[in-house]
Design brief:
- The complex is a heterodimer.
- By secondary structure, chain A is α/β, with parallel strands linked by helices.
- Chain A folds into 2 domains: 150 residues, Rossmann fold (3-Layer(aba) Sandwich), CATH 3.40.50; 139 residues, Rossmann fold, CATH 3.40.50.
- Chain A contains 12 helices and 11 strands.
- The longest helix of chain A has 35 residues.
- Chain A starts with 15 loop residues before the first strand and ends in a 7-residue tail after the last helix.
- The model of chain A has no long low-confidence stretch (mean pLDDT 90).
- Chain B is of the alpha/beta class.
- Chain B has 3 domains: 126 residues, Rossmann fold; 77 residues; 149 residues, Rossmann fold, CATH 3.40.50.
- In chain B, the strands form 2 sheets. In chain B, strands 3-2-4-5 form a 4-stranded parallel β-sheet, sandwiched between helices. A 4-stranded parallel β-sheet of chain B has the order 7-6-8-9, with helices on both faces.
- The longest helix of chain B is centred in the middle third of the chain and has 28 residues.
- The chains are: A alpha/beta, B alpha/beta.
- At the A-B interface, α4, α11, β11 and α12 of A face β1, α4 and α14 of B.
- β11 of chain A pairs antiparallel with β1 of chain B, so a sheet runs across the interface.
Chain lengths: 332, 405
């Protein structure tokens, strides 16, 4: 796709850009923010998810949508009146077997159509990343810059700053996790706290309304929590090819790679997914079949269920792990 | 104005939802040993290099003759036909699959077990742009875990490059090292024609069978057509068989009103076409005396599909391609609305993400063109009686609108 610098800029008047705090915001949020700020736009974020977000999103969504996509529409609705346009990219993927769930391709159309059906207006800035068919990430960002009325030079500078900011953050998280794992490994076995790897899409594990309960419950039990999505992405992605050659989702690949890399350092693994997650329905099955040697707790988070059930399950899982660590049951 | 489209929240059968997450919120598993790769690395029984492989496809609408032709004439191997799927097939598939994986996967797993029980040693799986990409590998793993060791998977996801040369090399490796290229190309062209003819025949059938004077006459011709295709071994067999069957079909007497009720079917690739997945929805509608068009077919979606033209026709409803069949279905719905169909039925399997995302654009089309859209979701539990009720209500509604207008 050729960007159209200097030809038309339908979003030149947009001063305040809204970014919904949901889905891939938890993966690319820093890049998106930096990009728009570099182009002199004000970025508006809405507040983290809560029950109200879900209720609004639920009303706008088809009933069968997954919890995460309902929350997404709730966030978009929260931004609709508070900014000039909402940024919703359509992300297809980076390679034949490094794609995103089709939900992320559909998001801009999903939001626009859902709002049109509900009779509300919504202005969407979008871009398409589809590297297998030749639309690279850089082209996509430059296209947005052109639509905002920036020059090619400004666009390129903003893109580079955005990528650098996101990479710096990701690398810092990966480094911190690596240090934590190393320092845990140095401790004598009896002093080491239970180490639990939470493998979930970032918008599940880091959204306080969805995965927050699990993290809190684990920490309350005195466990040390590692997040699979914070492990070094390039290495996890490469590692995942040892596990499967045809699993198509890049995020699931990274989670699987992280599980393989951290397998010997953790006491247990928690797989968490938002009900009903398409990629997880198959990837979790494969993980349960193939990742041997560590207990795995599979949790499905559903907004209707309430948090009590999740807490009980996490507690009993931690109990199992502590028994096992002490040389208790389960093949110890 | 009352809402014309039905509530998408109801499933096709009784209002039964897939198991809620809160009912099965978590489970703990622990298996001894080291992590292993998903693809199979263990020892397999050694097979005779010169024996012919026995290839089985999963069950898919009435394409079996084309699959058979492909296996026998192109791959030069034996074809294992599958009996029509039964309650048992579905049950096995359900049991082998995880709970909320898409429904076609469950049907296909059941078919694979049936095929292996009948002695197949190569199972075929295709590839796509959604979860379908991963079907082959996971299915293989599940079957091996179940103790079926002696089979190979012809999984087209394994060919990552998409080049014809690599597909040929892969088929040679898995099925038949002595595969003849000139013979195969000839066979492939004939198989292509057969798929086109099977689809053309179906389109004719759907347009006329609802108005048959003699009950069962169309079904009889359809069966004889499939038998002819099954017996075909050359391109001329296919062409003559098709022409004969079309002549027979067109000779059948019908009572077609001047302005019949017309319904268009579209939706998820597998479920929208396969009668055992959608509980014979086409036949049910035909029995009500409806002229049907089913847009989804291999011809329409794979062989004659023009992605750019399709995208260009729906720019007001969708900016980007949303997944495998999304653009196709939105365009088909728009076309049906423009051509004045009285109703549109959108079919999907439970949890099909791309088709769920198609629903809001379809709701808009329904509103813009004033055409009712019935959204149906099928899973392995969907009941026949519930579907009948919904279809009858839908038919009554569109028939009444037609009389009034």
């Amino acid at each position: 796709m050729q960007s159209v610098f200097g030809q038309r800029a339908p979003f030149a008047d947009v001063r305040r850009v809204g970014i919904p705090r949901a889905l891939l915001y938890y993966r690319y949020g820093i890049a998106w923010r930096t990009f728009f700020e570099q182009l002199g736009r004000e970025v508006v974020l809405d507040s983290p998810s809560d029950r109200g977000t879900l209720e609004v999103g639920d009303r706008l969504s088809v009933d069968e949508c997954c919890l995460a996509s309902k929350l997404f529409l709730g966030h978009v609705a929260a931004l609709a009146g508070r900014c000039d346009a909402v940024f919703i990219p359509s992300l297809m993927g980076y390679g034949r077997f490094e794609t995103f769930c089709t939900k992320f391709q559909a998001l801009p159309d999903l939001a626009e159509n859902a709002f049109a059906v509900a009779g509300e207006s919504l202005r969407v800035i979008s871009m398409r990343v589809e590297e297998p068919r030749g639309t690279s990430e850089e082209d996509a960002y430059l296209g947005v810059a052109a639509e905002l009325g920036a020059t090619r030079k400004e666009g390129r500078r903003a893109y580079r700053a955005a990528i650098a900011a996101q990479r710096a953050y990701d690398e810092r998280m990966a480094r911190e996790q690596e240090q934590l794992v190393k320092s845990l490994a140095k401790l004598p076995a009896e002093e080491r706290p239970l180490t639990i790897l939470v493998a979930a899409h970032p918008y599940v594990s880091h959204d306080p309304f969805v995965g927050g309960v699990v993290e809190d419950a684990l920490r309350e039990q005195g466990a040390c929590v590692l997040f699979a999505d914070e492990t070094d992405r390039a290495r996890t992605l490469k590692k995942s090819y040892d596990f499967s050659h045809s699993i198509p989702w890049i995020v699931n690949r990274e989670l699987i790679g992280s599980i393989l890399m951290l397998h010997e350092y953790v006491d247990g693994i928690v797989l968490m997914s938002a009900y009903p997650c398409g990629p997880d329905s198959m990837a979790d099955d494969a993980i349960e079949r193939c990742i041997h040697g560590k207990p795995i707790l599979t949790l499905t988070v559903d907004a209707q269920g309430g948090t009590a059930g999740v807490e009980t399950r996490v507690e009993s899982f931690v109990d199992i792990l502590s028994y096992q660590k002490k040389g208790g049951y389960l093949h110890a | 104005m009352p809402s014309l489209s039905s509530g998408p929240e109801q499933s096709a059968g009784e209002p039964r939802r897939p198991k809620r997450a809160s009912e099965e919120q978590g489970r703990v598993v622990m298996q001894p040993g080291r992590p292993r790769p998903l693809f199979f690395t263990g020892k397999r029984p050694k097979r005779d290099r010169h024996s012919r492989r026995k290839v089985a496809f999963f069950h898919f609408r009435n394409y079996e003759p084309a699959f058979k032709f492909f296996v026998e004439q192109v791959l030069d191997a034996d074809f294992i036909p599958l009996p029509p799927p039964t309650r048992r097939t579905v049950k096995i598939g359900e049991e082998l699959s995880s709970d909320y994986v898409c429904t076609p996967f469950k049907h296909i797993m059941g078919d694979y077990v049936e095929a292996l029980e009948r002695g197949a040693d190569v199972l075929v799986q295709v590839t796509g742009f959604c979860r379908l990409n991963y079907y082959g590998e996971l299915a293989q793993m599940i079957l091996r875990d179940r103790g079926y060791a002696d089979f190979d998977m012809l999984n087209f996801s394994d060919v990552g490059t998409g080049k014809v040369r690599d597909y040929v090399a892969y088929c040679k490796k898995v099925v038949n090292p002595n595969l003849s290229i000139p013979h195969g190309v000839k066979g492939l062209y004939a198989a292509w024609r057969m798929v086109e003819h099977i689809d053309e025949f179906r389109d004719l059938y759907l347009a006329r069978a609802g108005f048959a004077q003699e009950a069962g006459s169309f079904e009889r011709v359809r069966r004889s057509f499939i038998a002819r295709m099954n017996a075909a071994t050359t391109l001329s067999d296919i062409e003559t068989g098709f022409r004969q069957s079309v002549d027979e079909l067109e000779a059948l007497p019908i009572d077609k009103p001047a302005d019949p009720v017309r319904v268009a079917i579209l939706g998820e690739y597998y479920t929208a076409q396969d009668p055992s997945s959608n509980l014979g929805l086409e036949q049910k509608l035909l029995d009500m005396g409806v002229e049907l068009v089913n847009y989804m077919s291999i011809s329409n979606f794979n062989l004659h599909y023009n992605a750019d033209a399709t995208r260009a026709s729906i720019t007001e409803y969708s900016r980007f391609d949303m997944g495998p069949t999304s653009s196709f279905n939105i365009a088909a719905a728009k076309r049906a609305a423009e051509e004045g169909f009285d109703g549109i039925v959108h079919i999907k399997s439970a949890g099909c993400t791309p088709e769920i995302d198609v629903m809001p654009p379809l709701q808009r089309i329904s509103r813009d063109y004033h055409v009712p859209v019935l959204f149906l979701t099928f899973d392995t539990q969907t009941s026949d009686a519930g579907l009948d009720t919904r279809l009858e209500a839908f038919y009554d509604m569109i028939a009444m609108r037609k009389v009034r207008s």
